[in-house]
Amino acid sequence: MKAFVESEEFKKLNVGFVLDEGVASQNNVLELFYGKKIRWRRSSKQRNTPEFTLSIDWRIAITVDLEEFEATLNKWCKEADEGVWIEYQQKDSQVPPTKLDESNPYWIAFKKAADNMNLQLKPLILDGGTDSRFVRALNIPALGFSPMPNTILLAHDHDEYLNMDVFLRGIEIYWQLITAVANVEDKVK
């Protein structure tokens, strides 16, 4: 997805809003992801100890100052031993979340349509990875949402399934939401 959003083909699409997948909900409250935590996967290594590696996968809150955080990590390594250092396998940058306020006409349209269907939304910051981070990095608002209430979370499991009534209701919900955001007047940034 990263390569695609950097392509001329993507730019020609003139994307104003992205609706990404969400997750199933075990009750009637539907989770709505408007951002994601920052992922840093790293290994701490020590030169003076043969084969010693400590691997950590961090999901950093979007409010954390990353420069200060990294400076603290480097300080800890230096305090531990001059031969301790960090190698990053993944180091995502800070990407602002989608605004859920009056400044975002897509959110207003989405929320109004959801309210008209009496949907209960729970806005959250996602812990895991999502392709939405690449479009949010381009200042394109993106929401992760799946209308699957009262459904066991089996995403990507070997026995993943969806109740037929939930599936059919989900189509109606998507129809209403997509119609609402597709008719937002100001589509040009």
TrEMBL record:
InterPro entries in the record: Aminoacylase-1_M20A, Peptidase_M20
One Gene Ontology term of the molecular function aspect: aminoacylase activity
SUPFAM superfamilies documented for this protein: Zn-dependent exopeptidases
One matching Pfam family: Peptidase_M20
Name of the protein described by the UniProt record: Aminoacylase-1
Taxonomic source organism: Ignelater luminosus
